[in-house]
Amino acid sequence: MSGTFYIGSQISESNVFVAYYNKLKKLCLAFKDVELSTLISTKSSTDSFCGQVDYVFTDPPFGSNLNYSELSSLWEEWLRLKTKNEVEAIENKSQGKSLDDYRHLMTECFREKYKALKPGRWMTVEFSNTNASVWNSIQTALLEAGFIAANVSSLDKQQRSFKAVTTPTAVKQDLVISAYKPNGGFEQRFQNEAETEDGVWDFIRTHLEYLPVTKYQGALMQLIPERDSRILFDQMVAYYVRKGYPVPISSQDFQIGLGQRFIERDGMYFLPEQAAEYDRKKLTSGHFIQTKLFVSDEASAIQWLRQLLKVKPQTFQDINPQFMQELGGWSKNEEQLDLRELLNQNFLSYNGIGDVPSQIHGYLSTNWPEMRNLQKNDPGLVAKAKDRWYVPDPNKAGDLEKLREKSLLKEFEEYRQSTKKLKVFRMEAVQAGFKKAWQERDYSTIIKVADLIPNKVLEEDPKLLMWYDQAVTRVGGE
Is the torsion defined by CA of 330, 336, 339, 344 positive or negative? Predict the structure, then answer.
């Protein structure tokens, strides 16, 4: 805060006995109907916990936000009791602890909590940090410990900390991660199903049961990102990788199978009984907030285009000005692709030959009365539909996906052959290459290419970090 002018904290003395009695009244009210045996202990979270618990709430250190043990030095001298900070889960230069050390220590803490938690039960993690790499470290540590994240929400604590009030970059609201330990029945079934598609759908079915059915912003319903098909695929892949199994299904086949087995609503997937509940609540809500996407890399650009074209198939001339408006701060290490290249690799354009695709026909017949009840080869409909880009049907998008993957892997091979550090590259190509190398158990390639890309990029991408950590673990084990 050097050079910052601000009004210092104003301290007013209060009667300690008044504060004591007020707190005592609240505690008595809270616990008057509770009859529980209680165990209170003070020890490191990396130590084993005796017994099994129903629920865990944890508010861990947030990377390098505060030097906790150093800031306690005054009280430690007074109490004549020193903190053993060798296993303090923190990113701290004076202790020689890097972000990697923080992640590994948090993993050990979460592993002990995982052991103590009963199968099928929940852990809540409160988190507050503006640094993406620290956020990814927490998520990776959860995954490594065995937890599966089901929901991330914001928490307004009303009363802010001193740092939140006086520091402009501090987070005003904390994030709350809800994660669960898979139930024993699923874990046992997975041992037999892991190498087949049955394991995939058993995981998705079990995971959907844990996800919230609705999420609100005030009275308005919100999109639940965890129910998006791409997020579900990533969760499934992460679970397989952590368990050490090859993923038995491609992204394209997963999209097709998801639509065949589960019910889709507003781009989200539900179990039958969940879909019925969602429909009832949507009727009473009446409004739905569509999450706004910010285009900052190839993945977000593809997602933005998919969202745009699914609602309204358009020509390149219509798409381009909208796309340019959405372009914000493109990641400096991410290779920026031309809009035509993004469209060619991920979407289809109707060239005016043959029947008008149903995606375009549905849009035109809904929005232009004169286009209704026309045959799909009607000249007027064909002329109106020509050169429009649209989202391909999952059953027909397999070839497009294979061509794109081939292009990405070709680019990844160039990275693998490089002897120089990579400053600008396609993140999607690195992810595709890491996935293929994992399937082939070629862990050395993952480690080699990871060493070529900037460390900050690796730390801020949860997928790359997952592949890399697992590869290092496997090489170390061998």
Answer: negative
